[in-house]
Amino acid sequence: MNLDEITEFIDNKIEQDSTKITIGFFELKVKRNLSDADVLNALYLISTRLMNLGYKVYKTNEKYTYKEKEYIVQSNELLIGIKE
User: Measured between alpha carbons, how far is 51 from 44 in angstroms, rounded to an integer?
Assistant: First the structure.
């Protein structure tokens, strides 16, 4: 994914829900047919963009709090962005 595709991808996610962004394994690996290396690169760029937009970023198996409840990023979720 190039920067324009990542920007559009994130913008679409923000339109759906601006407080919680979920990036799933299926979305990147299966739908976009990215290699493992491309997934890692895309996740790096996505997390950087989300942090620049004021989101806290959590990766698989990390704990996070959303609407006063504690969650763990599931194995099918590669990244969660939370904006409080």
Answer: 11
